[in-house]
Amino acid sequence: MMVRAGLTISIVVVACFMAGCQSSQDGFSTATTVVGTLPDQSEVRLHTLRNSQGVEVGILSYGATIVSITVPDAKGSMDDVVLGFDSLAGYRGDNNPYFGSIVGRYGNRIAGGSFVLDGETYMLARNNGPNHLHGGLVGFDKVNWESMAASDGKRTSATFRYVSVDGEEGYPGTLRVTVVYTLTADNEVIVDYEATTDKATPVNLTQHSYFNLSGTGDILDHELALNASYFTPVDSTLIPTGELRSVFGTPFDFKTTARPIGERIRDNDPQLVIGGGYDHNFVLDGGGDSLALAASVYDPLSGRTMEVWTTEPGVQLYTGNFLDGVEGKNRQVYGPHGGFCLETQHYPDSPNQPAFPSTILRPDERYVSRTMFAFGVRHR
Ligand code: GLA
User: Domains along the chain?
Assistant: First the structure.
């Protein structure tokens, strides 16, 4: 940005070539390229957002998927801190454990793949043992979203839209969803969700990035603090029992002090044995209205930090327990705990658990939710 005699002049440059378009403004830039075509002939686009600090976020229109977040470490070296694949084929393959995507219409599990709403029973796919997971067989992670990217001099963002028709995956109502990813000058990645419906329906949208702030290896030494005094214990199929259990005096206590994720992950606590590590919803203290700090993560190896802020009442800590040698980008093979997810959300199985905050969106309402991943460094 140039400032002259009290006037602010923004420099905007837009260029389009065969491969796509690029625009830049005041140190922010966006680039869009076409990376493939789906069987329905729709083009899959990759939007790259960049700020003046050289931080870059790559997002695919397929699944509105974050494919890369490149941020500096304490010495200034840049690394990609999310797990993913090198190609669109990887994201479309059967081995993709929701890397970086938006999940919906209902992120997380619905017991028995069914729920009753306003006296009517709805049947959904049972795609996770006896339960419904992450929106079903073709959830929002497996559709090609309409998309565009733009910068305005203070931030750069990419907007994704998808219309999920009435009855899709068994859910009632046509749901119109918008997700906007914004990269700020301060290395924050903000995810804004909005949705409206024409019939009452459950909605629970989340972002399923797997983070590894070292960019390689496992995440067991990453130190985690969670602003949660309670979590929702689960049955053997990872459905909440309905209890809100205090974290204090248990391996789920990331509230009293930050601790390495791996410190107690192998404790003989039945809740940890069920899923081979953490795969639980934490009840955020005072969460659910304004943007509040949910989690802070520090990686002693790289010095990178990440804070997660959200308007949601819960966050699923998933420590990549089921990663079983997934062949990912840059010839990396992701094993158990190769990454962690902090999926901001309403609690799992809420449509069947009246005591949990409601996830039902009605035609006269607007679903609005915001989550922010803020990256930084800590010098010892
Ligand atoms: C979520 C679930 C996990 C697992 C992953 C995807 O985070 O809670 O149990 O299904 O998604 O592998």
Answer: 22-377 (2.70.98.10)
